[in-house]
Amino acid sequence: MSKTILDLIGNTPLVESKILNKNPNVQLLFKLEGQNPGGSVKDRPALNMIKSGLERGDISKQSKLIEATSGNTGIALAMIAGIYGLDIELVMPENSTKERVLTMRAYGAKVTLTSSDVGIEGARDYAEAKVKNEGYQMINQFANDDNWKAHYKTTGPEIWQDTQGKITHFVSSMGTTGTIMGTSTFLKEQNFDVQIVGVQPTDNSRIPGIRKWPEAYLPKIFNPKKVDTVMEVSQQEAEIMARRLAKEEGIFAGVSSGGAAAMALKLAESLDSGIIVSIVCDRGDRYLSSDLFD
């Protein structure tokens, strides 16, 4: 049966770490979300947010859509909005990698770059002002329940099935927090003892896709009760691990994936036994114009 590109979202593979993980009693599995057609885990919530919004009538082809993004969500929204014939403006800091901007434009989105001095918070402020003053509608990944529900419906069940229900720890970087919220909700329903580990940056570390949000910008979908442990990763640790993933495991991924993997490995060293699943949220090719792989 022929498939559309949207049918290829999800069902991403789990691959076992054979080099980096040195603990023979712990299985460390990487979930390769870069295998999604848009190249990241964000294809899942982007599809669910747009499809559900259209089904409810919250948005239509007449809607002027806008969204602030650090990159991956924007690419996914651009791809899926284009397929559904929707116009969308994506707002991101001007220091975002060139690959991200060009990919969004290739999918047909309008891209607006805001000052890097105010980061993603500034992009969010810009988008909210357009909603307030110019009649735009925001997808609002930070407060949209269809974000985390995408992972409740897909990511969590896939991990549970692919580990035969034996997963003991789930590790995910935290940005908008949709991945960890939805996956945690599902896994805890299956086995409350599964440990959910969120990864965020140390103070003064700048890691694309991972944030330690100021209180005023904390995603409304985030519920701290759904995260058992928070581990902090430095920018240097995340970047080194992204390079090691590519060189030693053949997994070409971005810096936020490196951050999650670094903490998953640290966790593996500390356990007597277990099965850890760590999210590799995107592909490394959208970081080639940065100095990550220099």
TrEMBL record:
Residues with N6-(pyridoxal phosphate)lysine modification: 42
Pfam families the record matches: PALP
Reactions accelerated catalytically: O-acetyl-L-serine + hydrogen sulfide = L-cysteine + acetate
Pathway the protein takes part in: Amino-acid biosynthesis; L-cysteine biosynthesis; L-cysteine from L-serine: step 2/2
Cofactor entry: pyridoxal 5'-phosphate
InterPro entries for this protein: Cys_synth, Cys_Synth/Cystath_Beta-Synth, CysM, P-phosphate_BS, TrpB-like_PALP, TrpB-like_PALP_sf
GO biological process, one term: cysteine biosynthetic process from serine
SUPFAM superfamilies cross-referenced by the UniProt entry: Tryptophan synthase beta subunit-like PLP-dependent enzymes
Domain of life: Bacteria
Keywords attached to this entry: Amino-acid biosynthesis, Cysteine biosynthesis, Pyridoxal phosphate, Transferase
Chain positions recorded as pyridoxal 5'-phosphate binding sites: 72, 175-179, 256
Limits of the Tryptophan synthase beta chain-like PALP domain: 6-282
One function term, GO molecular function aspect: cysteine synthase activity
Broadest EC class assigned to this enzyme: transferase
EC number: 2.5.1.47
Family classification: Belongs to the cysteine synthase/cystathionine beta-synthase family.
Protein name per its UniProtKB record: Cysteine synthase
